[in-house]
Structure formats: structure tokens, C-alpha cells
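Need C-alpha cells for this chain, all 478 residues.
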Amino acid sequence: MPYNIFGEHAQDPAAIDFVTEDSLSHARVTQHVVSGSISGDTGAFFELPGGPIGFAVGAEYRRERSLFEPDPDIAAGLTWSGAVQSAGGGFSVREAFAELNLPILSEQPFAYLFSLGAAIRYSDYTTVGGTTTWKVNGVYAPVRDISFRATYAQAVRAPNIGELFSPPSSAFNFIVDPCDTQELNNGTATRQANCATLLTALGVNPATFSPSSTPQASVFTEGLAGGNPDLIEETAKTWTAGVVLRPSFLPGLTLSADWYDIRIEDAVNTPEAQDLAQLCVDQPTLDNQFCPGIVRDQETGYIVGFSVMPANVAQFRTAGLDVMLAYRVVTDSLGSFNLSLVGNYLDRLEFIASPGAELNSDRGETYAPRYSATFDLTWERGPLAVNYGVSWFSATDRFTVEELAGDPDYSDPRFFSVKAKWEHDIQVAYRVGERFSFYLGVQNLFDELPAFGYSSYPVSAMGRFVYAGATIALGPVF
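Here are the C-alpha cells for all 478 residues:
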């Protein structure tokens, strides 16, 4: 029975039966953990000038398994999701760890506090082998009002069960071919040469290759998305340095600033199909980990399939400044005031897709503003509490540096940037006794709208949102 795709509730039941099928698939993920630790200090037999040495040692064993069994009709490729086969896998890890805290000095002239710390964890995975995580840190406070802190660490993250063994499933994406003659200038310096090599090998003329003007090439492309059992661990080197101010002449005030620098090697990243196509031809050569994921028609050269999976990319790096101000004032007649301001300056956000590839900086682009901050003010007096908050970040770039470098007229300059975010929220709460409280609030108080061309950026498309509710404590009140 033909299925009528026009109109709502216009389908014949026999047609619905013809194109639909009940299916039942089974998935299971299990984790078993056995761990133990001992912690304490040396106060019973040894102390440094600043106090006893704190320590912790321990060990842990974890085992994770996953299994997916698709319905036979799904496995046979008879459904919209395409042919999906059984998948599963697992790993186990044995770990040992130790940690020390050394209070070198305490309440001494020019050394109100001086302490050092260190920690180490060795892990042996059945998938990626042995890994070591460690850190060293220190705190120095010459006087009570000011302290300096710093940390240097190596962190390791092994790929998780989903990244390794997720079953392949169908995915559909619209892909703009980076080798289209209109897209050659919107990538790295190697894109044009790589596209010429790739298309020439297929017998296609790169000078006239224009999928964007061909209807059959301008449709959604079906591909696969799943896990990658060949992943290795990602390793991060991190250092932070900061200062904390708690001035005694202004009780209740805390001000901190910390600089951070994080570099991740072999980072696990799952590109979108569009990113995969671009990364293939934007590397120094076509011999890279991204090109095997793109399938082209052997006669036309058009992209006809893709396979998206997590991969260990060359490097991520980010650095910036975190600042925080907190101030609490308690009065006898006006109640208490709590003020909080948290901000960030993003100094860098860089990505290198493969060794030798061009550095791609995302700082200042969409979802990566250079400056961001949240402000929160709460007033409490008796059972009444009023909270006012502001979320802000600076304007961001609508287009990438590569897009504008290749085509300065890519867009009207008025749309190069996306407006800054300004979102105001307010909530009023009233407590009745120890068990009941009522609240009323407004999110996006001034009804800010998304930027032109976006459905939910930099603010949600929901607009102003008014809500009310109550909480009731049914159990014992402590």
C-alpha cells in the first residue's frame, strides 16, 4: 500500500503497517569496581615545623564491559537506521596511587603558610597499557591576607567504553564538499593541491568540480558513526599559578586570580562529517587519519558516504585567566548580601589536527568568546531571599579565520560578528517554617533574542521564561 507523505493523519493503516516495524534491541554496559585506600598523618611520631605530614595510599581494580545486540531486522538493514551489527567489548584496569601533603611552615614570620604536595597514580589498562598521572603543587602565604598557589601536573585519560566500542549506526549529514571550486580558498594552504591530487586520481577534472551546482550531490549523505577500538590515551600537561586575597580589613571579601595553561597530546576528538571532509584535504598530505572516513564516488568524485569515529588528534591547547570575587556582608537590620563575580579571559584555544598540520585557532569564534563573566547577587532577610544574576560574554566571530582569509567578501561585514550575550535572571523565594518554601522567577528577564542566523545563540530561543514552584520537605528536618 503506497504511503501518502502529504497531510497529517492522512495515511492508510495498511500503508503504515507496510513502512513500520516493531523492533527490539538489547544493550548492556556493566562496571565492576574494587578499591581500597589508607589515609592519615604522621602526627603520632613526626611533625614538620608546619605540622604532621598527610598521606594517602591505595589501589583500585575496574572492569567495564559493553554489549549491543540489534533486532534482526535492523541487522539486516531493513530499517531507516541502516544495517547495524552486533558490537561489544571491554577492558579492565589496575591502579595504585599515593599522595603527600608537606606542611613546611605555619604561622612563622613571612610564612603564615608554606606547604608542598605531590600525588602519583599508575594505571595498567588492557587496552592502552600503562599510564602515569602525577602532580606537584605548592601554597605560600607570607601573611594571612594573601597567598600564592601553583600546580604542575600530567593528567592521562584512557578512552571510555563508548568511545572504544559503540556500535556503528547510521547518520545523515549535509556535507559541503571542500574540493568544490567555490570552497578551495576556504581552507588551509594545502587544500587546493590535495583536492587536485584526490580528484585527478579518480579521473575528475578539479578545475570544473562543482557538486554544489549538481542536485544529486546536494542532498543528505548517509554514513556511519561508531566507536574506535584503536584509540590510545590522551595526555595533558597542565600548569596553573594564582593568588588569593582575603584582606583582614574587609572581612567577607575573597578575590582570586589564576592563570592556566593546558596542552593535550593525542586528544580524543570526534569530528562531524563536515569537519571530517575538510580535515582530509587540509592536512599536509592526503596520507592522514581523516581521509579513510570519506567515501567518494569512483566516477563523479562526489562524497557518497562517511564513517565518523573518535580519533586521537595531534594536539589541543588552551590558556587563559580565571578571576573570582566573592563578598558577603551581614547587617543587623537589612539582612545579608552575597555578591559573586566570576570571569574568564581566553588567551588561546588551538587545535592541530595531525603532526605538521597548520595550527587552527578557535579563540573568539562561536562558543569560544575571548571574555566571559557571570554576576550573582543574593539578598536574604528572614524568610525572604531575592537573587539577581547576569550572564555575559563578548561578541564572537561568525566565520572562521580560514573562511575570511580565502574570501574576504564571504559575507556583508556587518555580519562578521555575533552579538555579545546579555542574559538577566531574577528569582524571589519565601520560606514558610522549616518544611515549605515558595519561589517565583524569570529567566531572560529582558527577552533577549538569538543572533541573526542562529536558533539558540548567544541566548536560548525560548525568550523570557517565567516559572513558579514550591518545595516541601517530607522527611526529618535537621
